[in-house]
């Protein structure tokens, strides 16, 4: 994504969500940032219903807030991501997705996701 514009967010989220099997692609809970002002178009494009957390209510997006905290071990808040390659950012994502989480009974998020893929008969990268 080249900026935080609503059009760029629509394009980026749309592309990312279409790479997730439809059976696992249900909802997205976001904050009230202006970059999600095209949320209705995102729902039409992907079938994902977008919900918004109340202002100053991080507990409504608990796992997201926890993941942000883990991400801060690699990248400080406000870091310019453009200085990192996609491969470097992918390595950080892989590290986070292969780290045990209490909310998943100390399994990796990647294990839980793969289990859901198996249960739905879907494969990673299926586009619907």
Concise account of the structure shown:
With 128 residues, the chain is mostly helical. It has helices at residues 6-18, 39-46, 62-71, 86-97, 109-120; strands at residues 27-30, 49-52.
User: pLDDT below 50 for ≥5 consecutive residues: which ranges?
Assistant: none
Strand content: 5-15%
Element-level helix/strand string? HEHEHHH
Largest sheet: 2 strands, parallel
Number of helices, counting only DSSP H or I runs of 4 residues or more:
5
Helix share, percent: 40-55%
Q: What oligomeric state best describes the polypeptide chains here?
A: single chain
Gap from first CA to last CA: 22 Å
- Radius of gyration, in Å, reads 15 Å
User: How are the strands of the biggest sheet laid out side by side?
Assistant: 1-2
What does the average pLDDT come to? 89
Task: Give the tally of β-strands.
Answer: 2
- The chain-level structural class is mainly alpha
Domains, number: 2
Question: What is the global morphology?
Answer: globular
SSE arrangement:
Elements: H1 6-18, E1 27-30, H2 39-46, E2 49-52, H3 62-71, H4 86-97, H5 109-120
Parallel strand pairs: 1-2
Helix pairs in contact: 1-2
List keywords for this structure.
single chain; 128 residues; mainly alpha; two-stranded parallel ribbon; 5 helices; 2 strands
Model description:
It is a single chain. By secondary structure, this protein is mainly alpha-helical. The chain folds into two domains: 1-52, no CATH class; 59-122, no CATH class. Helices cover 43% and strands 6% of the residues. It is built from five helices and two strands. The protein has helices at 6-18, 39-46, 62-71, 86-97, 109-120, and strands at residues 27-30, 49-52. It has a two-stranded parallel sheet with strand order 1-2. α1 runs parallel beside α2. The relative contact order is 0.14.
